[in-house]
Design brief:
mainly alpha
Length: 409
Amino acid sequence: MEEQPVLWYNKGRESAGLGQYSEALAYFDKAIEIRPDFAEAWYWRGNVLIKGNRYREAIVSYDQAVEIRPDFADAWTNRASIQAYLGEFADAVDSYDRAIEINQKDAGLWFFRGIALHKNSRYEDAVASFNKAIEIRPDSAETWFNRGNTLSCLCRYAEALESYDRAVEIISENAETWFNRGNVLIDLERYADAITSYDTAIAIRPDYAEAWYNRGIVLGKLERYGEAIASYDKAIESKPDDVAAWYNRGIVLDALGRYDDAIVSFDTAIQIRPDYTAAWFGRGNALSKTKRYKEAISSFDRAIEIRPDYADAWNNRGNALSDLQRYGEAIASFDKAIEIRPDHADTWYNRGIALKKDKRYPESIASFDKAIEIRPDDTEAQLNRKSVPDDPGDHQGPGSEEKTHLHDI
């Protein structure tokens, strides 16, 4: 009689090995029916339930296995893996902890525990777990890589870089490691080195859209705009619907004074994502620079419709209205920007310009005063304040153009 559950168990193992999971499940159920305390049968029942995507039932089976045999490390490990897969990271950590109590020298357990801790935003604990895994197995590129990712989340960029360096020493052909290494080099403001890292990632994987995109970002920061555009073009070639690449391409084209090309880029970004406020804003700026102020206002209006608290859009809308000599509307637009962001010197300055052009001199002086209060070294605001006539009948003195506040690349 004692041999019968083992016979069913062995049949289950054989069927599982052949990929016959329904049959295997039936055999394990027979073994358990005869011997309910058969821990290995519960364990393998959990394994075949996973093959059928029956994850909750699998956890119940593993629960039975560890209740019968609390030192069943493999059952705790598989239980943890399924909990992590289901996004139950705190429970997964608890299961890994139980497995590690049984087998403290298993680098894989410490590694996967670190992954679960990272996913649960317990970054310091995750680093400690990766450190234990590395202590046991120092040549694991995957552990060094994930340690770098976690350190990056903690803004410990120099340490993250060291981790990525160790990872590429072990496996030099991993494009993702070179990519993430480039990202932390950006955070460390080592832009030339970041480009080299992205170049290596791209050499390994030429269609790596994200690497081309980030390379473009860095080149933009270095004002190497032609190369930045070429990078964005490669990103778009690999991923034509990369809305951020189209947007940033537009920003760089704008910086080069290629406003019509910039508008085309912004239009493409908007076509892909119609609610992309930054693209509507960038489009409005480029249109203003080509003196297509009415179209620019429409673009700023769209940005504001999507995001009513978009102070920069209200500000630049005011500039475009001022250029059309619609000063009352411009002032109202600046007032909205100031309501959202009261301490922005440029908006107070632009409001002062519009008030001066509208011959509302006392209000203009007050606006310039506010700009100077916020930014005492603003020589343009000081110059324009001095140029405001004391008497409304006086001629307007020399002034400056409005300042347009653009998003950084």
